[in-house]
Design brief:
Blueprint lengths: L7 H10 L4 H6 L1 H15 L1 H14 L1 H32 L7 H49 L2 H5 L4 H10 L6 H14 L1 H34 L1 H15 L4 H38 L5 H11 L5 H15 L3 H31 L3 H59 L1
Helix pairs in contact: 3-4, 5-6, 5-10, 6-13, 12-13, 12-15, 12-16, 13-14, 14-15
């Protein structure tokens, strides 16, 4: 049955009576398919959500590979341009980008990323562990001073609890208690520990497998990226002849993402290096670790610098409140310099987006999709802003032409 009591045969007779051609009937098929799929999704909502989650989980390695390929491509393209310009200077003529240059650039790009990760772990982790131990030691000493206070112990309500708590806090060198507690935990909860270890091991293997799949896929995509792009454009041209606007939007989105990430990482690196040098100059504690924290968090627009500043102040407070206050003044001045001079020149010109839209997009993207939403919100908003701006200018031009045409016609009639 179609539309109540209208059968397929009656529907065909209705189409013939109204001179509906076969081509006109075919045009409505995609709309009918979309309506049917929408009905299924609404009626079987939970099943549809579970099915989509299963598909996304199965394809997470592919998505990871595409994301890795996009990010590494920014660095690889820079290496390719540098190598080609270097060879051009040596041979005094233009050269085409060969497969060897692509492979060398890809190896250099991944080597650079791995080297940065290793250096960050090697420099940051030891200082982070020492700072964390100092924080725990400070909390412990302050707690013991509070619990051993005479007013607290003389209080009839909390005095007995304070003495019990202070006795239960182990000394720094009392390793026997730690070993005994760990042994008791292992003996009593061995079965649960074993099952949780198996579950964690399977999850780790699953994550490693997805990372390996993504890594391998990113290499294939980056080596043949021009061929894959041409194939995608060919498929769209054949099966979707009117997809020219979609291709233009995709190219604009790709350019905005690449430009934004390149500019944002450049600005974050400059801020991190300036922060580290300034901390060395003013003899503030943890200059390398804090510089990397500030640089890494500065990749996230607007909210990232504030988060890095708060984390850094907490660590410096373990050494000296006065130095933490000095760091607060220093990082505030540095962020003002960045917002006034560096960021508008490095990032502002690249995305061509007003500051109000940047802040709003980061806030909305972060509330909806967390850290990924904060990072991706700005280039997405910049793309929408440029599309609306271009359409607005086109409409204004068309409107002005129509107004001029009407004026000429009115002047002829008069």
């Amino acid at each position: 049955m179609i539309c109540g009591n209208l059968t397929v045969r009656n529907f065909q007779e209705h189409c013939l009576k109204n001179n509906m051609k076969k081509e006109d009937f075919i045009k409505w098929i995609p709309l009918a398919v979309v309506a049917f799929v929408t009905f299924l999704c609404i009626y079987y909502w939970q099943s549809a959500v579970d099915f989509i989650s299963l598909l996304l989980g199965a394809a997470s390695g592919i998505f990871l590979g595409l994301i890795m390929a996009f990010l590494v491509n920014i660095l690889m393209s820079g290496y390719e341009s540098s190598i080609c310009s270097l060879i051009k200077k040596i041979k005094k003529r233009d050269i085409k980008r060969s497969g060897l240059i692509r492979v060398v650039s890809l190896i250099l790009a991944y080597s650079t990323i791995i080297a940065l990760i290793v250096v960050m772990v090697w420099l940051v982790v030891p200082e982070f562990v020492n700072s964390f131990v100092k924080i725990l030691t400070t909390i412990k000493s302050e707690a013991l001073n509070l619990l051993n206070d005479e007013k607290i112990r003389q209080n009839k309500y909390i005095g007995k609890y304070a003495s019990q708590i202070s006795k239960s806090i182990p000394a720094e060198d009392d390793l026997v208690n730690y070993i005994q507690n760990i042994g008791t935990f292992l003996m009593n909860g061995f079965s649960g520990l074993f099952s949780s270890m198996l579950s964690s091991a399977s999850e780790i293997v699953n994550i490693v497998a997805k990372v390996f799949i993504g890594f391998a896929l990113s290499i294939y995509v980056l080596i043949d990226k021009e061929k894959l792009a041409a194939q995608c454009k060919g498929l769209l041209k054949v099966y979707f002849p009117k997809s020219k606007n979609f291709v233009n939007v995709a190219q604009l989105l790709n350019n905005n993402f690449k430009t934004f990430f390149r500019a944002q990482v450049t600005d974050a690196a400059i801020v991190g290096i300036l922060c580290m040098l300034g901390m060395f100059l003013f003899r503030l504690p943890y200059p390398v670790m804090v510089g990397m924290i500030i640089g890494f968090t500065a990749i996230v627009p607007v909210i990232g610098p504030m988060t890095g500043e708060i984390i850094s102040i907490i660590f410096i407070l373990t050494v000296s409140p006065i130095k933490a206050f000095m760091f607060f003044i220093f990082i505030t001045v540095l962020q003002q310099i960045d917002n006034t001079f560096l960021y508008p020149r490095v990032v502002g010109k690249s995305i061509d987006l007003p500051g109000m839209f940047v802040f709003t997009s980061v806030a909305v993207g972060g509330s909806l999709f967390g850290l990924v939403g904060m990072i991706c919100a700005v280039p997405l908003t910049a793309t929408a802003y440029k599309l609306i701006k271009s359409d607005y200018r086109h409409r204004i031009v068309v409107k002005n032409r129509e107004d001029k045409r009407k004026k000429r016609e009115d002047s002829k009639h008069t």
